[in-house]
Amino acid sequence: MGTETDLTIAEAQLVLFSPEGLIDEDLWHRAATKLRQEAPISWVDAEGVTPFWAITKHADVLEIELHNNEFLSEPRCILGTVESDANLKRDGHLVKSLVQMDDPEHRLHRNVTSEWFLPKNLAKLEGRLDELADEALEKMRAAGGEIDFAADIAMQYPLQVILAILGLPESDYGLMLRLTQEMFAPDDSDFKRDEDAMAGLMQTLMDLFNYFTNLTVDRRANPGGDLASVIANAQIEGNPMGDKETLGYYIIAATAGHDTTSNAMAGAMKALLDNPDQLKKLQDDPSLMGTAVDEMIRWTSPVKHFMRTAARDYELSGVTIKEGQDVYLSYWSANRDEDVFEDPFAFDITRSPNKHLAFGFGVHYCLGAMLARMELKALFGKILPHLASVEQAGDSALTKSGFVSGVKRLPIRYTLK
User: Fold this and answer.
1) How many Å is the Cα radius of gyration of the chain?
2) Which residues contact 118 (CB under 8 A, 6 or more apart)?
3) 14 vs 362: CA distance, rounded Å
4) What mean pLDDT value characterizes the chain?
5) Kind and range of the H or E element at 12?
6) What domains can be seen in the chain, in order of their start residue?
């Protein structure tokens, strides 16, 4: 991709944060490149959104992430509308998860499940990850040479992993997938629940609220060895975890715990199809899977942004962010920063070092980062050696979402060994 663009700064800003911009990958990257080069910290005052600073350079995103006392997740951690911001200010959070918390609250709640995601405990999942990868390969065999890799493989595999960890019944997996898609993409024509996106989102949140309220009651009465039982019975400084926080924990685990990884998987397959030399290199040398997985994650950057609010005046690369002003951290842009990544628009499975920020950084570094890497390694480690040939068999499509997004449709044609 070239760096030239005919967009103005104002046009580039709108592309950067709009769901419409995110479904046109080439346009979006032209806009982000424009901002990185000419206005890396730019004030956005656009219709329908509360004004904010757009942060597009790797170094600036990283600095904000490392200064979590100066830049807070409260009151809004993702970009909303003027209306949703007003509702949040008036009513507060309906549910509250780790991504909406700051220390010491964040640290205390993160500690509830942090042990589950230690390497020694995640290593116990390797057998199950391999079994699910075998099932994915068999599904491809049964499909007879054509399948929608995004919908039928990538969206299913991480869902099965995280919901099994939570201890949810398989009969509810389909429901959780639908509610996740509705929550993260309320504007997407394939997933939205209501023509009024906000109304649809509220209906989805109510369904999640009811589901997990019932789950909490059950796990408190009948605790088991699953993650849902840990969350339901958690204590924060000697007191039961609050209802909003308990529900938020369930929702972030059951939704973000699979949707981000499925977006990475689908986008990774598309990247391999678009770069057959890299696919062949990885098939010829499976030892490259470690660096390949991090390149897949950098390339896709499933979490497109988070918001932070300045707790005090802060000087960032010569720009003064005033107390109370919001900053929009663009991870996808940071992960294409020419000052950090050599040839950033090349998909290179041997890229090392790979200092991507797709999992965030600092205190908010993703709890499930290691699990996501394990899942990608297990799935592609199983499928790629059996692919004798593979090509895209129709148009792909991106999810229309400004927060968590990726490839939602990827028809492929293949032969298996």
Assistant:
1) 21
2) none
3) 28
4) 90
5) helix 9-17
6) 9-416 (1.10.630.10)
